[in-house]
């Protein structure tokens, strides 16, 4: 399950992650790196691709709200709470927030407390796309 959480946390502003049904791989391209090298730059990728599935976007996941929830409900130290809330005010906050959690030894608590939210988002996405990961 930690792999799913790590995958969901990799989805950041302007970063799209795709699942390739044929290779059963996740990556940041809607096509394989081999196909990308051979792709004519004038060619557009098909809108409806039965092999490549885009995971929920950064906006659809709403990381900021999940992270705020964690700080409000699970971080007791006032100084750490302030630092985390300050990070969440930034435009690009994801990496800094996760680094801060590691720095103050709260990352595992974050995963234990909020991991189920990310897993639920992933499972709903998989169900919507008729994908089975069990």
UniProtKB/TrEMBL annotation:
Superkingdom field: Bacteria
Source organism of this protein record: Fundicoccus culcitae
Origin organism lineage: Bacteria, Bacillati, Bacillota, Bacilli, Lactobacillales
Name this protein carries in UniProt: Uncharacterized protein
